Amino acid sequence: MTDILMPKATAVWLVDNTSLTFEQIADFCGLHPLEVRGIADGDVARDIRGVDPITGGQLSREELDKAQDNADYRMKAIVSRHAELLKSNKPAPKYTPVSRRQDRPDAIMWFVKNHPEVTDAQIAKLLGTTKSTIESVRNRTHWNSANIKPVDPVTLGLVGQLALDELVKKAAEKKAKDDAKRGGPTLDAAPEVVEELVVEAEEPDAYKGSHTAESVFGSRD
To answer: Would you place residue 106 in the very low, low, confident or very high pLDDT band (cuts 50, 70, 90)?
Structure first.
């Protein structure tokens, strides 16, 4: 099946103007058969105006005729250049199974303890969580803080080892660049402190050399 423009509007037109089955329309439009049935019953897409996929260049008359003659036939959409251009290149949000969502705070704590150079935005993107959740884990304000323990996200099965290594590497490189821009830590005051200590250590010797018993009380001779 090829993605088509305005699938619900197309389904409305096919329901109203053809003898296709709900399954055929659902397959062509990328909808669930029950959703198509809801369109036919007037419970779904009630205010949507139907769009003819034939005049829109997304379906040929020959394909429609074949499908109407054979309920088992599944129509093939015409590849639309406009549909391809309108497709989003943005990756789908990361989905974490419900059974593993309770493990995410442990993975967050692992990052907080072992890789503070990784930003909250990077953690959120990798684990499919939110910055507020990360902050609550870090500040121990999470509702389940008493049971949260740092566990490697790879061990938890939340991410792959390669993805984790790449993220940590990028974060380390960025931190190194930021430190270089700031000039890194300085120890300018250290030589002066050492010099003062040396001078203070020398003063008692100088004092002893200039004031002897003979110079203070005089010679017996």
So the answer is: very high
